[in-house]
Amino acid sequence: MNLLNLDFKNSSKAKILTRSSVSPCYESSFEDEELKTIEDLKISDGTLTTTFLSKLSTLMQHFSNLTKRVTDPNSKILICGDLNSGKSSFVNKLLNLKNIDGQCITSPIDQLPLTSIFIEFRHYNFNYLNKKPEIHAILKKTEVDADNNLLNIVENYDCMDPETYTTFELNKLEELVSDESTKNNYSLLVAYVNEDSNIQKDQSLLKNGVVDCSVIDSPGLNVDDFVTNDIFSKQETIDLIIFIINAENQLTLSGKDFINTAKAEKNFIFFIINKFDQIRDKERCSKLIMNQVQELTPLTYKQHDDFVHCVSSREDDSPGNSPHGNGDDSIKNNSKPDVDFDKLRNSIKNFVVLKKSKNKLLPSQTFLNNLLRDLYFLTDSNIKIYNNRIQIVTDKIKKIRPEIDSISNTNVDVNKKIDYLIDNVIDSGYDFVKNAINGSLDDVTLPEYKGITNVYDYILENLECMNDKIEQSVIQSELYGKQITINAVSQIYDLNNIPENDRPIFDHDMMFNSRTKNQSNTNEPSLFKDINVWFELTDLFEPSWEGFVNFLVNGGSIVNDSLTGEKKTNDSENMSLFTKIFSQFEFLYKNPALIFNSRIPTLALYSLGGSKIINNLMVYGSSMLTWNSITNIATTLLATSGCLVGAYLINDLPRALPYNLISKYRETLKDIDYSHIQAIRVTKDIRRILKIPQLELITKNNLKLFNIKEKEKNWQTILKKLNNNVAFLNEYQKEVVNEQQKLMEIVLELD
User: Fold this and answer.
1) Is there a contact between 493 and 503 (Cβ–Cβ < 8 Å)?
2) Disordered: where is this region (predicted)?
C-alpha cells in the first residue's frame, strides 16, 4: 500500500504499522460461532474503519490540493532537512537576495525549536498592494489553522487585504524568527524580496516570466513531532522538494520518514549533500548516501547526476564565521565562481521551468497511479476475503440442509406414528365401548321373584337392574378409555424421547367429566335421558309351546331357553311347531317317570272327575260320541285348558317379564344407536386428550425446525450480502483498471 497504509504514530521515532507495503495483509478471523449477523462480516473493527475513512478524507483533500497545484502556473519549492543541516544558508546562496537598497538579505540561520516557523520568499512584484520588498506575517486564526495546513493558510491570505496579515520591514526577518511570540501569533511569514541584479532574468527562480516560483524555508524535521507532521501535510502544495543532507549525519530516521511520505507522489527529489568537503572518506560517504537514495527513491537515483548534488562549505568566508554569523553550517557564499553550485542552480531551473511536466503533472500522475494501485490491491484483497467467507457460508448451508431434511423427515415420521397410534387407540376404544354396551344385557342377574302379590315391585326392580347394567357397561368403557389413554400418552412421549421429568402431569380423572357434571345437575342419570323404556301389561307374558310343554311336564323349562334368547341356535329357531311338540313328547317318552311327577295327572283328575270319566269312557264309550256328550267333554276340556294356560302364564311371569324388558331395551338401544353414541362420546374425549401431547410435540418439533430454518435463512441472507459485496468489488475493480489504463495512456515528456 503506497497511500492507504494506516500508520498509528505516537512519536517521530516509534510507530505501529497495522498495514504497510512490507507487511502482508492477513485475513481477518472468521469464527463461525461468532457469526450471527452481517455486522460480523465487516472488513475491520470500528477503530480501523474510522481511521481508514479519515485516511480517505485526507487523500481526497490531497487530491483537491493537487488539482489546484496543477492549475496554478507558478511553482513552490520546499527546502527541508534536519535541524542544523544548512537549509537557510542554502536558501541565501540559491536566491542571493537583496533588499530595496541593494543590501544582502539572508534567511535566518539556526532556527530554534521554540521559534520554528515557515518562511516563504516571493518576488516583490507579486506584492500587488505595495509593490516593494517587505514581510507579511499571516495572522493565525484558530478556526482556519486548526489543522495547520499550509494551503488553507495561504488561501486565507490576501496581499490586497491588510487585515489578513501584519506588515514588517524586511530587515526585521531575523528578529521576527527569533521572537518566541511569532509562532503563537502568526502561521506563516511571506517575505517579498528582490534578487541580485547580476542574475539574468532567464536564470531567476522567483521571477523568470515562464514559471515564477516561491521558495519555502522550513524548520528542521527533527525539531519536534508537531513540526515534522506539519511538513508532511504541506507536500501536496509543493512542486519541488530540495532535501538538505548533512554529510556527517547522512539520512536520519526523520529524513527517511519524510522521503517515504513524499515519494508517494513525487518520483524526483533533489538531494543536496552539504559539508561534503569536510568528509575525509568522500567515496565511502557518497556510496552510503547514494545507497540510501536508491532505496528510498529509485527514479531519483537513476538520474542522480541531475538530482543529487554535493556542495562544499568554506569556513573562512561563510556567513557562519562572519561577525554577524549565528553558527549554522553554511554553504559558501563568496564572489568566487562555484561550478558545482551553478550546476545545481541550472538543474533546479531546468526542472522547474523547462521540465514542467515533471514538477507539475508527473507528481499528480504518480499520486493517481499509486492511489489506483492501492485501490486495486485493496479491492483484490477484499475479494479474496469475501470469496473465502462465501465458501465458509456455503459449506454451512450445505451442512444445514441435510439437518433440515432429517428433522423434517423425522417430524413427518413421528407425526405419522402418533396419528397411527391415536387411530388404533380410538378404534380399540370404540370397539370396546360398543361391545360392552351391546353385551351388557347378555348376562343379567335378575332380582328375586316374591310372588304374584309383589309383581309391581318385581317390575321396578327389573327396570332398575337393567339400567344399572347398562350404566355399569358405560362406566367400564370409560375406565378402559382412561387406561388406554394413559398408555397412549406415555407412548407418544416415548416416540419423541421426552424424559419423564420433562413430561407434563396428565390428570386422567378429568376425562369424561362432562357426563358427571350433567348427572349432578339432574335427578335422572344423563345416560338414560334418551332411553325411553316403559312397562306395558303385555310385558308380563311371553308364551311359547316349549314353555307350556315344560310347564305341563315338570312345571319348569325342559328346553334350555335363556332369558336373553341369545343362546338359541339357528336350528332351534327354524324348527316347526310340530317338531318342537314332538321333541317334547319324545323327551317324555325317554323319561316316563316325569309323567307321574308332573301336574298332568292331578289336573286331569280334578278337571274331569278322575276315574268317573275314565269309567264312563270305558262303559259308555260309543254313546259318548253324541253331540251333547261331545259338547260337555269339549267344555270340560276348554275349561281345563284355560286353567292350565292361566296357571302356565302365572308360572312363566318371572321369566317372561325380564325377557320382554330386555328385548325392549335392546330394541330401544338399537333404535337410538346408543352404543355408537356412547362410543363416539368416549373416543372423542380420548382423541381430545391425545391431541394435547401430539400438538405439544408437533409445536416443539416445528419450533426446532423453525429455528434451524431461521439459521439457514440468516446464512442465506449473509451469503446474499457477501455475493453482492463481491459483485460490487468486481465491478469496482474493473473501473479501477479502466482508470489506470486511461491514466497510463497519458505520456508525459520526462526528458
Assistant:
1) yes
2) 312-338
Distance, CA of 26 to CA of 24 (rounded, Å):
6
Distance CA 642, CA 648 (A): 10
Q: How many CA atoms lie within 13 A of 724 on its CB side?
A: 8
Q: What are the angstrom distances between the C-alpha of 63 and each of 80, 239, 242, 263, 639?
A: 22, 14, 22, 15, 144
Question: How high is the pLDDT of residue 747?
Answer: 78
Instruction: Please name the amino acid found at residue 409.
Output: N
Cα 366–Cα 368–Cα 369 angle in degrees, nearest 5: 65
Which cell goes with 195? 534578487
State the Cα–Cα distance between residues 250 and 290, nearest whole angstrom: 10
Which residues on neighbouring strands pair with residue 273, listed in sequence order?
Answer: 245, 310
Please count the other Cβ atoms lying within 10 Å of the Cβ belonging to residue 703. Answer: 10
- Which triple of cell numbers denotes residue 178? 527569533
- Hey, CA dihedral for 479, 480, 481, 487, is it positive or negative? positive
Contact 385, 668 (CB under 8 A): no
Pairing of strands 119-123, 308-311: unpaired
Are 624 and 616 within 8 A, CB to CB?
A: yes
Amino acid (1-letter code) at residue 133:
P
Q: Give the residue from 114, 110, 109, 131 showing the smallest Cα distance to 122.
A: 131
φ/ψ (deg, to 5) at 264? -60, -25
Q: What domains can be seen in the chain, in order of their start residue?
A: 72-354 (3.40.50.300), 421-482+510-692 (no CATH)
- Asked if residues 426 and 683 have their Cβ atoms less than 8 Å apart, the reply is yes
Give Cα 170 to chain centroid, integer Å.
71
- Going 618 to 623 to 629 to 634, the CA torsion angle's sign is positive
What is d(CA 505, CA 46) in angstroms, rounded to the nearest whole number?
52
**How large is the angle between the packed helices 362-438 and 46-71, nearest 10 degrees?**
150
Torsion region of 86: left, alpha or beta (phi above 0 gives left; psi -120 to 50 gives alpha): left
Helix (H) or strand (E) holding 82: none
Residues 6+ apart with CB under 8 A from 503: 493
Predicted TM-score (pTM) above 0.70: no
SS3 at position 188: strand
Residue 245's DSSP bridge partners are 273
CA 421 – CA 679 distance, rounded (Å) = 18
Write out the three cell numbers for 496.
419423541
Instruction: Please name the residues in contact with 356: beta carbons below 8 A apart, sequence gap of 6 or more.
Output: 211
Q: From the first residue on, what is the mean pLDDT of each consecutive set of 10 residues in the chain (751 residues)? A: 62 35 40 49 60 82 80 84 82 70 52 63 88 88 50 70 89 83 84 73 74 85 59 69 87 85 80 85 88 89 87 49 37 58 82 72 82 89 90 91 89 90 92 90 83 84 87 90 90 83 72 59 49 76 73 52 45 56 57 47 48 56 64 74 75 82 87 90 90 87 90 92 94 94 80 49
Count the neighbouring beta carbons within 10 Å of the beta carbon of residue 301: 17
**Nearest CA-CA partner of 69 in 188, 155, 167:** 155
Residue 369 has a CB neighbour count (10 Å cut-off) of 16
Distant-in-sequence, close-in-space partners of 643: CB < 8 Å, separation ≥ 6: 603, 607
**Distance between CA atoms of 484 and 490, rounded to whole angstroms?**
10
Cell 524568527 belongs to 177
Q: What is the pLDDT of residue 557?
A: 43
CA dihedral sign, ordered 577, 578, 583, 589: positive
Grid cell, residue 663, equals 328385548
Output the furthest CA–CA distance in the chain (Å, rounded): 205
**CB–CB of 353/211 below 8 Å?**
yes
Q: For 415-491, where are the E strands, in sequence order? A: none
